[in-house]
Request: fold
Amino acid sequence: DVYKRQVSTQSTWAMSLKILDEINTGLCDGLTYDEIREKYPLVDKERKEDKLRYRYPRGESYLDIIHRIEPVIFEIERCRGPVIVIAHQGILRCLYAYFAKFDIPEIPHIDIPLHNVYKMIPDAYDVCLLYTSPSPRDRQKSRMPSSA
Reply:
């Protein structure tokens, strides 16, 4: 069951989905990129060569994530009201890429700044307009527009 917990308050639902967990880094779980580079230099090298297809030892690739979150994308498309997704950058890259119509090879390289809110509004042709609003502490660092 993908639902860890589900809370209902009037017409608002909050749920935690295991399907939206961060990329599974397998043997590298809990390590920083510097530690991976030092402990597993081949992992670091291969991942840099093909970040989209690279699968961590006993872990996942971006292609695995894309496949994993497909059901969530379908559910978001069916929703009639607002949807809030709070997730790690890899998951957000995949969701953003789908709705912004990025090509799959671009997904691992999409800049998703931390502490930002993306507002996706479907239009008449099922194309979403995407806006971002950095948090006040990141407004100076972000390359994204501060008003939308």
